[in-house]
Every structure is written in structure tokens, then in C-alpha cells.
Amino acid sequence: MKNLHYFNLEIDKRGIATLVFDTAESTINVLCFDALYELEKHLEKIHKNKKIKALFIQSAKEHIFIAGADIKEIKAFENAEDTIEKLRHGQAIFNKLENLPFPTIAVIDGACLGGGLELALACDYRIATNAEHTRIGLVEVSLGIIPGLGGTQRLAPLVGYAKAIELISASKRLKGDKALRLGLVDASVPSGYLAFKKEEYIKEILAGTLKSKIAKTRKGLKWYEKFFLVKMLIASIARKQVIKQTAGQYPAPLEAIDVIEQTLNMSLEDGLEVELEIFGKLSTSAISKNLIELFFISEALKKETFSTGAMQSIDTASVIGVGTMGSGIAWALAHKDIPLRLVARKMQSISRAISNMMKSFDSIRRRGRLTNREIGLKMDRVTYTTEMLGLGQSDILIEAVSEDPMVKKQIYTHLEEKARDDAIIATNTSSLNISTLVKDCKYPERFVGMHFFNPVAKMPLVEIIAGEKTSEDTIATVVKLAKRLGKTPIKVKECAGFLVNRILLPYLSEASKMFEEGEDIERMDALLKSFGMPMGPFVLVDEVGVDIGEKVSMILYDAYGERMKPTGVLEKMIDKKWLGKKTGIGFYRHKGKNKTLNSDVLSLQKGKSKLEDKQIIDRAILIMVNEAARCLEENVVDNAQYLDMAMVMGTGFPAFRGGLLRYADSEGLKNIVTRLRKLEKEYGERFTPASLLVKMSKEDKYFYV
After folding, report:
1. With 0-12 CB in 10 A as exposed, 13-18 as middle and 19+ as buried, what is 334?
2. If phi over 0 gives left and psi between -120 and 50 gives alpha, with beta otherwise, what is residue 541?
3. Which listed residue (63, 89, 414, 451) is catalytic?
4. Looking at residue 1, what is its pLDDT?
5. What architecture is domain 7-284?
6. What is the DSSP code (8-state) at residue 685?
7. How far is residue 536's CA from residue 277's CA, in Å, rounded to a whole number?
């Protein structure tokens, strides 16, 4: 065991023991194996002490109870047998906690996730705070595993079978009040009242009244949930929901449902063994390793500043241009209580933007996360102008007009006249050169690109693009703002298409080329969705807009030449007014949520190609791998890990594959180069392997060590 200290045990004169989790030299508590082993020693000592009448377990960390198991230890699991043995010991420790001969109470203030909740479930009672920082859940399936310390066994008896399946398979994180309503905790109080609630429990324990009082409020299993047919029906519905959301590409939620269904009527001992077996299998799988790697990248990005500059506070903002992107950005600012001014030429545009913002808020309200009063307070901070008035108060002005450089430059001239000399001006351009846009500006050092992705309310990525003269302070400030908005900022080098669009457009263009050669649209969409993409390329083009796709593809063609040459298919579709979903017709005909193939588009095909499935996938995916390698060569992004996270967050590249370059690693870089060479012979220089790929394949290197 490492020489670290995790728990402090205090016993008062009344026989009330308090075990305080306080990991040395850390701001958080995680349940590593050393912490578990130390916990076991304390439990053995506590069990032998006949004077103890109750045990409270709480945390000394601010806003953290237990953040979960130690993910590094899970990542290190190499074979199922060793994993199962370690977890079996962990389960035995929690069983010792559960079997103590006096009441045990978990006092939860802050994150109580994964193994942290499994520890709390092994206690007799749970007190939680209703503070915003408290989140409670078994979130293991998001890492490609299932709960392994009894979570699948102890949750259903508290909240019911159907609810247990829902909470575990969807990795739900509950606030204290919601956990109380479901029966997961026995009390939910403000953080400042926690000590009083603890004292109240102590008095009831000493009086012998707590058990009967809590028993009256417990939800537990519904009487009918144990019946075979009911149990099977609930599990079947849950599986269909998971498959609908994941296309069956993620085994963990399905395995979790199986375990809960299979073990519902088993003894705890037998159920724990089933849980162990499945945990062991999943924890050593490639999918789990990939998801855990992405988790670590995400954690690294939370700490990343991308700048040596000083972060300035953003207390007020303006958004210029309030179309789809502008209204989305405005909503993100309003949601985080930043006073905001909308700027548009027409009042009609502002009205539409406010309506769009209210729709986004209403979606959150329906899920119980905001009240009408809270939404009203946020929208009260939103003002507007059609004449660029009142912009002098804003700390940042975000331009989100159409991708027309002349229009943008005119706006910047006006903004520099209206804005404060120290205000930041950001553009939401998706592909235009930042330095060129601000060539005539007085203060290029406070100009920066903030490329949000559509829909802003759902897409977590923001590309941060510095121009040649953008200051370090400006970069630091917008990175801080993006994080405040709940986004993941990734700084990328100034180049046509930046990072995500530069890699994604060749994928869409290659799909267009295969269509022109005669390949079936619906088949290609289905194949690439089965690969793991959130939607096929033609569905995506229709969603984004054929005209927008064509405009960006021309920008990339101008910048990168022949390897980015478009087919002309999109241009012909624009001539026919087939602009995609917004006009009701593109590659598909759209009616409400339904779509059917636009058979008229087949007139744009020039051949009758019939490729094999693997050939279609290779052409679409390997061209992205190749461009991603070029981006690394050119230092467009700091490393392969950030590139992969950008593609997962910005395009929905399948997380279970670990990202684009991790996928390349899994295929083998020599193999990737060989396949690219073959495609190069058949289709030309756009498949010429990037120099970095060739070099790494010769040296037997990988993007991930």
C-alpha cells in the first residue's frame, strides 16, 4: 500500500463515529484501491468497537463527496481475471460496510459518482445537499463499463427496477432533490443545513426512531416488477431505447440492462458475481480503453489555457447577427447570466432570435432544470438594437453574420467605432482567414476567432483561432469565456477551414464523388452511420445546407488546390434550388421529421460504380485520417489527442473508436499507408499519404503511446 492517508476517524462521547474521506495532497476524493484497503482497516476497527452506535461517512473536500473510482487504475486493467479478483475484494469491503451492526449514513455534499455512490448505497441511509454542485449517479457506462462494486445490485431495491435500469444505462446525474424524489437519498437539504440534519439523525438514532421513520418514505421495488413478464418487458423497452440512441455500438448500457434483469431476483452474493463477470469483460475491452482515453483528454482540456496571457473578466456581451448561429450563441450567453445585447438590421430578425432562445430554454424547463421564473430573469438581461447603439458597455462583441468577408469587414469598421478600446471582437467564422478579415482594423490584437458549432445549445466544441496579431490576453479571455459557457475550447492555427471543417469537408466531398460515380446515396449514408458517424454524409449536407457546404468547399479548394477539388454536384443542386432541409429538398425530400430520397438528384450521376462496403468506408474515412495527419504536420492543433477530441465533439466521430487518429492507430499506420497508396493509384493525389503518416509507419510509431 502507498504511504498515503485517506480517512480520518472521529468518535464522540455519544458513540457516534464519523469517517472523513480526505485524500492527502489532492483536491478531490477518488476510490483507488489503496483508499479501499484503508477503508477496510477502519471498518474492521469500527466493527470491533462495541461503544459505537452509528457511523457517518463524509468528505472534507469542497463540493466533492467521492468523484468515483480511480480511472487510471481501471485503464490499467489488462486481463479480466485479475480485474475480477481486485473488484471482488472491493465488493467484500462494501459488504462489510453494509453489514455493520449499527446505522450507517453517507453525508453527500458535492459529486457522488460511480464508486462513490456505490459506497453510499452500501450505507443504510443517505443525506444529500440540494446545492447546484451536488450530482449523484452511477455513470460507469459512459466509460464503457458497468458499476462493479454493487451498484447494479443495490440501486433497484431503493428506486425500483425500471428506474434503476434508466439511471444506470443512461449514466444519469441527479441533483439532491431529484434523488430524494426517487428514493435514492433519504434527505435533501441546503449545504448550510447539513450539520443540523446530521444532528437530527443522531438524535433519532439514539432514540431508536430513525429506521421506522425512513421506512415510511422509501420507494423500493414496485410489487409487480419482480414478475417475469413485466421484468422482461421493461428490459426490452430499455434495450430498444439504448439501441435507438447508440445503434448498438456501445455494449456497456446493454450489458447493464442484462445484469439488472438477470439478477433482480437473485441473492446479493450471486448478483455480485454476475456483475463482476461483466465488469471484467468490459473493463479490458478496446471500447472501454478508448472511452477512458477520451475522458482523460477531456480532463486535460479543462485545465488547458492555450495562452500565457492574463484572463480578463467578461461581464457583458453583444452578438451581431442573430440568425441560427447568432441566436444560438446569444442563448449560451444568456443561459450563463451574462447581460447581452442583440444587434440586427431588422426587428423581425431579433424577434425570431428571441423566439429561438426561448425554445432552447423551454426544452430545459421541460426537463425540470429551470423554472419559468429563472428563465424570465435570464431573458431580462437581454436587450437589442437595430442601429448598433449601446455597444460601448460590452466586454466582448461576437460577430455571427453570413460568411461574406466584405460584409464582415464593414461590420468591424462600425464595431471599432462603437466598442470600447479594450473590448474584444470575436468572429464566428467557420473558415475565413482571421488576419485577412482584420487587416484594416485599428486593434487587431483584440480580435479573435470563436467558431461555435451548430446547434450551439448541444455542440460542446469551440475552436479558438488567433490571427497574426491576436494578443495572448485576448486568447486567454475567450478560452475562459468558452469554458464559462460550458463549452470545450481548443485553440487551432489559422488556416482555411481551421481544424474540424478542414478534416470534415474532404469526407463530404469524397461521398459526393462516390455519388457522382454512381454509388447509392442511402447505402452510403447507412454504411457510414453503421461505422459510427451520427448521420450519413448526405443527411449531414442537407442539415447544414447545400449552399453552405458548397461555399466552404470552394474556400478549401482555393486554399489547398487539387486535393480539395469539389465535384460540382453541390453547385448544380444550388442552381436547382435544392438547398437541403431548409428548402425541403436536397439529396432527400424533407417533410417534417420524415425524409425520402430525392430521386431527381440521380440525374447528376455520371457512372454506375458499385463499390464494396469496405471500399466506401475507406474512401470516406481514410481521406479524413490523411488530412488530420497533415494538420498535425502543420501544427494546426497541439497534439493528436486534442485533434481527436475536436472531431468527436465537433463532428460526432464515434467516441467508441477513440477518435480519428486513435482509429488509425488501431488499424495500424503501415496498413493505413498501404490502403492510401492503393487509393492513390485508383483515384489520384488526394489520397497521397501525408508525409507524417509515411514517416511514422516506417518508424513503427503511433499517434498514441
Report:
1. buried
2. alpha
3. 451
4. 43
5. Alpha-Beta Complex (3.90)
6. G
7. 36
**Residue 420 pLDDT greater than 50, yes or no:** yes
Q: Rounded distance, CA 194 to CA 192, Å?
A: 6
Q: Does domain 317-492 have CATH number 3.90.1150.10?
A: no
Sketch the domain layout of the chain as residue ranges: 7-284, 317-492, 500-636+668-698
Distance between CA atoms of residues 4 and 628, nearest Å: 43
For the four alpha carbons of 586, 592, 597 and 600, in that order, the dihedral sign comes to negative
- The type of residue at 6 is Y
Question: Letter for the amino acid at 452?
Answer: F
Cα torsion 310, 312, 313, 316 to 10°: value is: -160
Residues 23-62 have pLDDT tens digits of 998 999 999 999 999 999 999 999 999 999 999 999 999 9
pLDDT for 403: 87
Q: Is the pLDDT of residue 533 over 50?
A: yes
More confident position, 293 or 593:
293
Q: What is the mean pLDDT of the chain?
A: 96
Do 317 and 396 touch, CB atoms closer than 8 A? yes
What length does the chain have? 705
463 beta partners: 451, 490
Q: Is 590 assigned a catalytic role?
A: no
Cell 483536491 found at: 27
Span 379-388, mean pLDDT?
96
**Opening angle at CA 667, ends 664 and 673, nearest 5:** 70
Q: Give me the percent of the chain exceeding a pLDDT of 90.
A: 96
The CATH code of domain 500-636+668-698 reads 1.10.1040.50
Q: Give the pLDDT band (50/70/90) at residue 527.
A: very high
